């Protein structure tokens, strides 16, 4: 039987969730970011597929994979969703709304958890629609010339679902970094650095370190979930995604500590 205290706590948390949902859906950038994420994911895959129809690409060539071709828009789509994730927190600091939020919800860890659940739920729906939409649109285009893939093909369902999961995780990474830094521009720059700038720089490390660091670096490990066959030496899809999630969890642990210890 649920005690009155538990029922009260549950009711309070449901109100926190409702409040975060209201803030997210009324944020002007929310709809734009979600639309851009979907358009980039589906549109880029469709555009590259149309280009492939007129190219002399050999479908038997190892670099040509009709499944992975569907997710060429994921590179920019992840940045769009990560930016929205950062704005979920930094937007409140920019407007001063964070003081009202913390006054209404003194339990700062609960406030952050509510933001994660609300944003994560929205990101999950949009990411899965984008990922599966990109797959079906791309395969419909490629079927005019090539043997298109179906979800029943080996690794296809895991790759399509994994591409969506990677987008969700990257969006949450943006939220975590936004909570750490509290400044929109700084959070976006830091996210871009983690996703796009630092991975190539790993290659300049001594060869004895480069491979190990590259294997476990967040985007390198996490992106294996959206690859049909991982490169030799890289982590397996689910192991790599688990490593990515552990990196994100570490960011949120640090973010939670700072949120609870810093003044608004």
Q: How large is the radius of gyration? A: 20 Å
Could you say which overall geometry the principal axes of the C-alpha atoms support? globular
How many E strands? 0
Residue stretches low in confidence (pLDDT < 50, at least 5 long) are none
Largest beta sheet, briefly? none
List key phrases describing it.
264 residues, mainly alpha, 10 helices, 75% helix
Describe the structure.
The protein has 264 residues and is an all-alpha fold. The chain has one domain (9-261). Helix content is 75%, strand content 0%. The chain is built from ten helices and no strands. It has helices spanning 4-26, 28-54, 74-95, 97-104, 108-142, 156-181, 184-201, 207-216, 218-222, 237-261. The chain is globular. The mean pLDDT is 89.
Question: Could you provide a short overview of the structure?
Answer:
This protein is an all-alpha fold and 264 residues long. Helix content is 75%, strand content 0%.
């Amino acid at each position: 039987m649920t005690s009155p205290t538990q029922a009260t706590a549950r009711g309070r948390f449901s109100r926190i969730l409702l409040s975060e949902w209201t803030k997210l859906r009324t944020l002007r950038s929310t709809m734009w970011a979600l639309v851009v994420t979907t358009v980039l994911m589906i549109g880029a895959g469709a555009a590259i597929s149309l280009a492939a129809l007129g190219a002399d690409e050999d479908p038997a060539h190892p670099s040509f994979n009709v499944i992975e071709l569907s997710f060429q828009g994921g590179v920019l789509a992840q940045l769009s969703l990560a930016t929205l994730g950062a704005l979920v927190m930094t937007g409140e600091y920019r407007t001063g709304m964070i003081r009202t939020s913390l006054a209404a919800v003194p339990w700062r860890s609960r406030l952050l958890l509510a933001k994660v659940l609300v944003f994560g739920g929205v990101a999950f729906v949009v990411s899965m629609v984008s990922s599966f939409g990109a797959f079906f649109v791309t395969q419909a285009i490629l079927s005019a010339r090539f043997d298109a893939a179906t979800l029943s093909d080996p690794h296809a369902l895991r790759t399509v679902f994994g591409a969506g999961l990677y987008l969700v995780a990257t969006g949450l990474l943006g939220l975590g970094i936004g909570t750490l830094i509290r400044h929109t521009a700084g959070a976006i720059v830091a996210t871009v650095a983690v996703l796009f700038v630092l991975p190539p720089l790993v290659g300049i490390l001594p060869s004895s370190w480069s491979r190990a660091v590259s294997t476990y670096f967040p985007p390198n490990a996490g992106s294996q979930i959206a690859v049909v066959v991982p490169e030799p030496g890289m982590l397996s899809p689910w192991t790599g995604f688990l490593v990515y999630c552990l990196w994100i969890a570490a960011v949120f642990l640090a973010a939670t500590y700072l949120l609870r210890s810093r003044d608004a």
